[in-house]
Amino acid sequence: MSKKQVKLGKGAYGQVELKGGKAVKKFKKLSHLVQEWTAGIFLKYEGTEHTIHPLSFDLKSLEITMKAYNTNLRKILDKGISEEDKRLYLKKLLEGLVELQDLNLVHADIKPSNLLVGKGDDKKHLIIGDLGFVSHVGFSKVERTAEAYREKYDMSNGFGHDMYSVGVIMLELFSEDEKCTREKECTKHVKDKVISSLIIRLFHETPDKRPRAREMMKELGYPCNENVRKNKSKIYPTVKELEKEKDFMDGICNSFEIKRKEYGFMALNTYLKEHTEGKDGKDAKGSEGKSEKKDGKDGKGKKDRKKKDKGKKDERKKEKNVKNYIVATVFILSSVFGRSSIDIKSLLEKGKVSERKFMKSLEKLLNSRTFVCNIMEPSI
């Protein structure tokens, strides 16, 4: 491996290499890339400060490029850590979880190796990385959490799942017995009574009785900002081309048991409203004005017929484009909120769209801030 391509880590969905000073994650499946990009870029748009933000993606090579971090909490713990730094990193972890929970998101893979730490001025700045399982409460892939940090009771798909993982990490940070990593009894090896009490509550068998991140910060005396959303969903009247294809979208969603389809419809409608309707209306108006002036009364009828035929062709083209976007939207919904990856070939056959047009539409939607923020709208 060349000096410019240093392996940084490997996860369930792919491996990360250092290329040109950036961390590049190579995925095995398109759905995995779509899920991690959608979650990460949404967090970036929301202005989170303690979660990793993707910089760019490449659908052909199945890669996402991100900022590279020097180390992670796992490596720091293995080398030894001061009491001051233990509390600092706990605070940073909780700040990141507050950001996620304020957006109704569950990380589902909180563990020391996913808590990234920079170098130089950033060496005290911990952020939550690896967003491959992130989704809304009820949809995150909690069953794939690393076993050592996964609750041993019936798994919940809510904030309590992440908080259980925090309890295990806190034992690693503050227990004087390195062999104690999970059991409540291990808290007797934790000197700080507040920390010990929190760990016990984080291991509660009932997930809803585990303290959330914001509650923990207050109990530990850490300042915590109130939740302020950066992006509000925009609601528009339904674009007529999408209204015509509503049954088509419902049919595909039902065939593949797609969740949160109403958010997908809203996101796509907003995207189409902002990217097509205004532009098309302006062009049509401009063409009409020119034709009347040039042809006069004699040529007006012929010109109007041509324009009408062109309008019908444009209408059919719009409808086909909408179907391409619908299929891409369904794939995004499946990737972010589904339990397993959807079969792309089956999806394209059902939607009767080509792979080339599907990929083109998918890329446009993933690059749209409006679309991403609407499809990830917190359902709190």
Architecture overview:
- With 380 residues, this protein is α+β, with helices and mostly antiparallel strands.
- The chain folds into 3 domains: 7-67, Phosphorylase Kinase, domain 1 (2-Layer Sandwich); 71-219, Transferase(Phosphotransferase) domain 1 (Transferase(Phosphotransferase), domain 1), CATH 1.10.510.10; 240-375, no CATH class.
- The protein has 12 helices and 10 strands.
- The protein has helices at 30-45, 73-79, 83-102, 159-174, 193-202, 213-219, 240-244, 246-255, 261-337, 344-351, 355-366, 369-375; strands at 5-10, 14-19, 22-27, 54-58, 63-67, 71-72, 105-106, 115-117, 126-128, 135-136.
- The strands form 3 sheets. A 5-stranded antiparallel sheet has the order 1-2-3-5-4, with helices on one face. Strands 6-8-9 form a 3-stranded antiparallel sheet.
- Helix 3 (83-102) runs antiparallel to helix 6 (213-219).
- It is elongated.
- The two termini are 46 Å apart.
- Mean pLDDT is 85; it is low at 278-295 and 309-313.
How would you briefly describe this protein structure?
With 380 residues, the protein is α+β, with helices and mostly antiparallel strands.
Number of strands: 10
Quote the average pLDDT.
85
Sheet/helix structural class: alpha+beta
Radius of gyration over alpha carbons?
A: 25 Å
Quote the beta fraction: 5-15%
Oligomer: single chain
Alpha plus pi helix count: 12
* Percent helix range: 40-55%
CATH topology call of the largest domain: Transferase(Phosphotransferase), domain 1
